[in-house]
Amino acid sequence: MPRLSVCDPAGAAGFAASTSILRPSMARADAAGTRSIVERVARNPNGHRPPASRLARVSGFSREEAAERAGVDVPYVDRLVRLGIVVPERDRFSAGDVRRMLMARSLEDAAIPLERLAVAIEHGAVSLGFFDAAAYERFAPLSGESFQQVSERTGVPLDLLTTIRESIGSPLPSPDDLMREDEMAVVPFLELQIAEGFRPTAIERLLRVQGESTRRMADAEGAWWNSEVVEPAIAAGRSADEIANPEFADRSAPLAERAMLGLYHAQQARAWTSNIIEGFEVLLSRAGIHSHLERPPAICFFDITGYTRLTQERGDEAAADLASTLARLVQRGSVRHGGKPIKWLGDGVMFHFRDPGPAVRAGLEMVDELTTAGLPPAHVGLHTGPVLFQQGDYFGQTVNLASRIADYARPGEVLVTEAVAAAGDEEGIVFRDVGPAELKGVSESMHLFRAEFA
C-alpha cells in the first residue's frame, strides 16, 4: 500500500493512517466489523465527535454545504456517515467534519478503502478526531467560485489563476474547477499587480518561485513532524490520538508561521536594501558622481552544481559530512588569499576579496580542490568594483553582476569581467576571451574572460 505524502502537522494523519491500518489486529477485522460500525453510529462510539465547546460556537453546515466545500457529492457524505467516519451533530457538519471528508477522499485515492478506514476507527487503531484542532484549518475547503468565474470577476487572466494551483504542485485545473479557499487568498495580490500594469510573465515567475519555495519548506516541515512526533509516538506504542498530537500541533503551528514570517521579512529587507542601493548607484552615475577607488575589491560567487540535490539524496549524515568538507575547503581557500566567506546561498557561497588578482587564484584553486575532494564541480563568477557594506553583508551592482556571471558559467569555469582581467596580475594565470555574454537580469551584454592556470 503506498505511503501518503502529507505536509505540515497533517503528516501525522497520513503517516498514522497509512501505517496503523496495516497493524496485525486490523488484519483480523472482517465485514462483520464494518457492519458493527454502522450499528453503533447512533450511539456515537467512534471517539471523534466534535467537543461540546466547539459545537456551541459553530452552527455547522448542511449536508449539501459540507459536500460542496469538500468537493464531493451528497451520496459520498452519506456513505461516510453510514460508516461512522463522519458523525454530524443534529445533521449539521462542522469545519472539522469537512476536513475529515477531504482526508477520507485522499486516503481512498491512496488505495485505502473507506471500509478498512472505518474498521480502523472502530478498533481505535486510527482517529480523525485531530481534524477539529485549529492547526488543521490549513486543509482548505473549496470556495463557491470556479477559476473561470474568478477570472471574469477580477480581470486576472485565467492562465495566471490556474498557475496558482500548478505552482503548489497540483495538476493544472480546468476553467470550471472550483478554487480552494487558500488559493483565493492569492487572488487579491494578483489583482493588484494586474491593476498596476505588471507584466504577466513577471507575475507568473514570482508566483512559481513562491510556490516552489513554500513547497520545499512544507516538505521539510512534514519530514520534521514525522521524525520528531509521529515516529517516536509509534515506537512508544501510543494511541492513535496521541500519535496525531493535536495539542502540540495547535501550539507549534502559530509559532512556526511566526518564525517563517520573521525569516521572510529579514530576507525582504536584504533584497529591498540591494534594490535601493543599486538604484542609488544608477542615479548617482547619471548625475556624473562616480566612485574613485584606486583598487576596488572583488566579489566572488562560488556555486556548486547540484549541491542541494546531492545533500538530499545522500541522507542527513552524509549531507552533514559533505557540508563540513565544503565549509573547510572554502574557508581555507578564501582566507589564504585575503578573502572571507560572506554568506551561503543555496548551492554556493559569496566571498569578498580585497584585491581581484588573489580572488581569481582563490577561485581557480577552490574549483580544483572541490574536484579532488570528490565533490560536484563548481562554477565561479567574479567582478570588481565599489560595494556597500551593511550589517555584515555587501550590496550593489558589483555584487549583482558577480552573481549573474556565476549563473552563466559552466561547471568547472571561472568567469571574470574585463575589469578583473585587467587588474589580475597574478603569476601563472591567463585569461581567455569569451566575448560578450547576455546575462539574466542585465540590460547590456558583458564582455567576459575565462581564467585558467597557465
UniProtKB/TrEMBL annotation:
Pfam families: Guanylate_cyc. One of its GO terms (molecular function) is adenylate cyclase activity. Transmembrane segments: none annotated. Residues 298-406 form the Guanylate cyclase domain. Belongs to the adenylyl cyclase class-3 family. It comes from Agromyces luteolus. This is Guanylate cyclase domain-containing protein. InterPro entries: A/G_cyclase, Adenylyl/Guanylyl_Cyclase_3/4, Nucleotide_cyclase. It comes from the Bacteria. GO terms for biological process: cyclic nucleotide biosynthetic process; intracellular signal transduction. SMART domains: CYCc.
